[in-house]
Please model this.
Amino acid sequence: MAIDFKLFEKIPGINIMLLPDPPFYTIAAVSNDVIPAFQVKREDMIGKGYFEVFSPLAESVTAPGGLNLAGSFEFVIEHNASHTIPVQRITVLAQGEGFKEKYWKATNVPILGDKGDVELIILSVVDITAQVTSVPALHLTKDLEKAYDLFLNAPVIIGILKGEDYIIALANNGLLEVWGKTSDVIGQPLLKAMPELEAQGFIGLLDQVCITGDPFYANEYPITLNRFGKDEVRYFNFVYKPIYENGTDQKASGIISVGHDVSDQVTARRTLQESEGKYRNLFESMDQGFCVVEMIYDLNNKPVDYRFLEVNSVFENQTGLKDVAGKTIREIIPDIESHWFEIYGKVALTGEAVRFVEESKVMNRWFDVYAFRNSGGDRQKVAILFTDITANWKAEQLIRESEDRFRKLADDSPIFVFIIDPGLDASVSYWNKTWMEYTGQTQEEAMGRSWDGVIHPEDLPLVLEYYERAFQSGREYFIPAVRVKRYNAEHRWHAFKGNPRYLPNGEFNGYVGVGFDIHEQKLNEDVIRRSEAELKIKVAERTEELERTVDELRRSNQNLEEFAYAASHDLKEPMRKIQIFSGLIRDHLQDKMTPEDKHYFDRISSATQRMNILIDDLLMYSNICRGAVMKEPVNLNEKIQLVLEDLELQVEDKQATINVEHLPTINGHRRQLQQLFQNLLGNALKYSAPGISPNVDITYSIVNKNDGQFPIKTSSDGLLYHLLAIKDNGVGFDPADAERIFTVFTRLHGNSLYKGSGVGLAIARKVVENHGGYIWAESEPGKGATFKILFPVE
Model:
């Protein structure tokens, strides 16, 4: 149990705190009023037995005063209850007057521990000498004279009530002061003078005493009094005893009340208990271990041990020690390290708090400790707040060991290994031995930004560009080729790669990287680069020629036909040779190419494939433009079915849904009509929205061109037209591009998103025009597209 002795010392009145250790009853604390009352210093009382301190005043334990007190102490310990001695006669030493007889009202109150046993006794004393010694001088009435012996031994508060209405016959000054009344109440009925007592049941108590003749005893009894116009709860120890006119009366004629106002003691004790409760709650709510120890010194004032006075519930989990209160550390762990005594002893003697991390090898634990001297400046008591950090310490040790292994492996590696601290300046905090041996630098010389004197000046901006871009995003970086100077001033080509490092809490902590020699590979790149340059020149020449031809195509269909014819004969063969020879070069240099070289060849192959597709589409467009339409009945339902069979894999891959209404049979060119639907349905599948399964609806109706709701631009003079609408739920396009999309080479999306030559819709329009019809598109971005076709009804 934690007791704030400083608070106890401030409690008003004569109060002494004792340990329940008969026959000594060791004094643990005394209130400030005890010192002038007995003319004894506090240091001469604390830690000594009660009867040892006051034996010169009471002569011996068997003296009347000592015997009564000892019996009261024993009663409190045995019954776990308070005990009051109404009048205690003792002899004390008065300043300048020698020994003098005194009269006390003494109350002993137990302080119980968690297990219900008495841990402390609080002796509270009230000096009633003046009241007791002044009684013989009073001119008492006949009734008071009969109660003289009782009155002589009464406490400070005295009252006498007479008759059935309990007339106030006597109230001493102490009682009047407690009531908050004057002597005017003498002669009044009790309830008239103090009506607030009726609801509290006091008349019933008085009646019970008068009728039964049995006294009523109360201890710390709460009474609500209206003092000076304000209700106030006060606490009393009192007794009601009956008064008889003569020995033959069966019923008492009055009541004598003797008592003592113990409100201050009750309030102080409750404050003490609340303070202790708050302290205990805080003490037990800590998630760290906490204890208070008392240092033990040898004759040379050297700390040699310490005793545990208090520990919280976390203490056992943090230390593994059980039931330590009252024991010394050497009793629990005989071979405990001496440095613990030295640290805590210094804190106790100097009062300087200390924070440290220390290991106890005996306990096989590491602790993070904060030790400070206990409040009040006690040079023996030290409070200790600590945390078992063994797991963290072991983890840190593993990290250190891991770092040691890393450095050893790095030093044995044939490539450069480095660590960059977090920062835009790319300051290096570690290079392995391979770097030092290559550059001739020492470890100290290699630290920080000294590497920028080793990188070739022409390559330094490239290194900084790669690093700064990666640092800003916290990503890895790869520098494909820079020149690094050797100790002999020779430069060799190296590649560098850095990966970001992170702390356990996820915080970015710089980079760990490697550098490796690519000098031979870099020299071999010249051969590959020359072949690549020649190939690029040829491709550029053909591309330039193709672009000129495309321009002419856009100006004239006749030029387009000529270009398509030239393309079929002049471009197909060169493109085939480009594919063959680039493949041969790739195979020949396969083992010598870097990933970047392979990337270039992949781009050449992809570009060649796209060019072949473009040439094929242009040839088809040219044929459609040049060829006459050989018309015959064509069932459009059969054409749609053939197209769906060709697109079966795409439909399954995209989980598309194609809904087709019954379509008509028209006069037309079978192959061209099939190509029309092939391009339009392929378009709908290609430009589907990401993450959404394509849905295509093909509807049919017959319309009259005079309805005015269709942009009919055909070569036919008829009035009726077949209207076919192909509607999808794809990405759509801006309405402003609705006409432009039918132009050759027009693409609204990048080739990286949607592959194609930009000729398909131009072919579709040409097929429709060859059949005397008209095609147009309606769309909005993100809302799909609808392609509508008009064929004349023949």
